Amino acid sequence: MVDYFEFYGLPLSFNPDAALIKQQFYAFSKKFHPDFYINETEEKQAEVLELSTVNNKAYQVLSDPQKRLHYILELKGFLKEGENYVLPQSFLMDMMDVNETLMDLQFDPDPLRLEALKTDVDAIEQSLYNEISVLTASFDTQTEAEQVKSLTAVKDLYYRTKYLFRIRESIDKAENL
Fold it and tell me: Where do the J domain residues begin and end (predicted)?
């Protein structure tokens, strides 16, 4: 896995300097533009094309807070492909209530109840994002042991937000019925 922070010469951070990311992206876009390598060997052209692709991907990931969060967890080995993460029972119980309300609304549409459910889900989601913000704000100055603790907590919150994303999709479907 390519370390996009290293690629851009930036320290790993949940809150990197957006201006520096953009600056590096534009600098590398010029440096690795395939048109400048037309007269080079096929091997060199392929290398430049690969670097151009990495540059584009690095910019997409590092400039988007959600993608960056996922990427850092993956880079640090906290997310594994196909992982079966078990969410806390208390969270699942809360979500079961939300899902039951959604099922009820499928059979008995009620715009006021749906709006109330959206408000509840928004509040839960905002609370999760606030917790993530607190954990990631001090990440850069933490010791390695503290970072491991923070990353473990961020991973849990990340999976909760993913779960809420699916619920939000169900709410959107219920709105369009």
Answer: 3-75
Fold of 89-175: Methane Monooxygenase Hydroxylase; Chain G, domain 1 (1.20.58)
Q: What is the pTM of this model?
A: 0.88
Q: Please give the Cα distance from 43 to 54 (Å, whole number).
A: 17
Residue 22 near residue 55, CB atoms below 8 Å: no
Asked if residue 78 lies in contact with residue 155, where contact means CB atoms within 8 angstroms, the answer is yes
Q: Which long-range contacts (CB under 8 A, 24 or more apart) does 25-34 make?
A: 25/55, 25/58, 25/59, 25/63, 28/52, 28/55, 29/55
The predicted pLDDT at position 97 comes to 94
pLDDT at 173 over 90: no
Could you report the per-residue pLDDT of 101-126, keeping only the tens digit for each?
999 998 999 999 999 999 999 999 99
Annotated domain spans of the chain: 4-63, 89-175
The answer to whether 16 and 5 are in contact (CB under 8 A) is yes
Q: Which of 121, 107, 108, 106 shows the shortest CA–CA distance to 163?
A: 121
- Which string of b and e fits 15-43 if b means at least 16 CB within 10 Å? ebeeeebeebbeebeeebeeeebeeeeee
